[in-house]
Amino acid sequence: MRVGVCIPGDREHATADTLALIGDCGFSSVFIECREDTQDAVGLELAEFGRQCRRAGVECYAVPRGYGSVLATPPGLRSSFLQLLPSARQIDSRGRPIDRACPTDPDFLDWFAARMADLAELLACDGFVWDEPSLFYSRGVWACRCLHCQRVYESEYDEEMPAELTYRVLNVRQRSIIIFLLAAAAAIKRVNRHGRSLVLAAPGVAHEQLHIGTDYLTRLLDSSGVDGVAVRVDWPAPYTAADRPRSAMEDIVAGMARPGLMEAEARGKEVYIWLRSTARPQDRLIETLQFALRLGIPGVVLADYDALTKDPAFGSMRPRLLATVAAAASAE
Fold it and tell me: What does the H/E/C string look like for the chain?
């Protein structure tokens, strides 16, 4: 089982010291969060960090954040693309624009493909993780009803797109995300034909309908633009920090990851669990890694480098983490 870690793509983290700690912990891969609003400003540092990763034999993945807000967007990040071309925004079922780009808008797709190709060339990375690509949905209000999406619907069903979220509308929205992922994969493969595309599914995507365009793992995995999925795993309510039994952890991991694992294996594709965890004993990081290994999960990504390594408990936990990651690597 491969174990990797996700780090912020900034000057503080894209350093030799970070890479040394990654190597000391035995992590086989690093996932670098790349923000739309800082890609150009920290480009040289990210390029050098990518070179250091390759020399150290550590796989490197880019995790784009923002970029028209079709992907998961950190608080406070305003998309420069939406400011330059507001006409490419999603239109909701009330006819109002949403501060997210429409993934089928041709101008957005051209811009996004160019930015991702630049990022792939900059990092010379092994692949990308597309974090929760989605269309807007909230309390029955949905997008997108822009002219492009309406034309796609009308060409498919020979009728006007309704204002209700019908099965046909859901089908077109899901296909819009697939088209977006195909364009994204094509952009990075123009730079690196072996570059992999993983989709980080939204919480609940494996077992409930969120109406965001990625509601079915099977449709994602059936796409030639998707090489694998990562399933986000976290402690849900009602478990508090003081009450997280081991049996509950195993139920959560198995319940979230097993459907993705079965679907991915049936199609010969990769699956990771994207694990939010700290060094605190109650978060049961070591036990979770050990259980994921027993479950047959091919890969785990620890989703927050700072929450792990800056926790006061990290020093005492580190020897067990090293041993666990080493055991996982030897079992691969």
Answer: CEEEEEEECCCCCCCHHHHHHHHHHCCCEEEEEEECCCCCCCHHHHHHHHHHHHHHCCEEEEEEECCCCCCCCCCCCCCHHHHHCHHHEEEECCCCEEEEECCCCHHHHHHHHHHHHHHHHHHCCCEEEEECCCCCEECCEEECCCHHHHHHHHHHHCCCCCCCCCHHHHHHHHHHHHHHHHHHHHHHHCCCCCCEEEEEECCCCCCCCCCCCCCCHHHHHHCCCCCEEEEEECCCCCCCCCCCCHHHHHHHHHHHHHHHHHHHHHCCCEEEEEECCCCCHHHCHHHHHHHHHHHCCCEEEECCHHHHHCCCCHHHHHHHHHHHHHHHHHCC
Q: Which residues are CB-contacts of 27 (< 8 A; sequence separation ≥ 6)?
A: 3, 4, 5, 58, 302, 325
Provide the whole-model pTM: 0.91
Write down the domain spans for the chain: 2-330
Instruction: Report the distance separating Cα 94 and Cα 92, nearest Å.
Output: 5
pLDDT, residue 23, reads 94
d(CA 81, CA 108): 8
Distance between the two ends of the chain, CA-based, in angstroms? 5
CATH number of 2-330: 3.20.20.80
Q: What is the mean pLDDT of each run of 10 residues along the chain (332 residues)?
A: 95 95 95 94 93 95 95 90 95 96 95 95 94 90 95 95 93 91 94 93 52 72 90 65 64 75 85 85 85 90 93 92 93 74
- Check if the beta carbon of residue 130 is closer than 8 Å to that of residue 65: no
208 burial type by CB count under 10 A (0-12 exposed, 13-18 middle, 19+ buried): exposed
The pLDDT of residue 281 is 78
Structure tokens at 108: 């957005």
Q: What is the pLDDT of residue 247?
A: 67
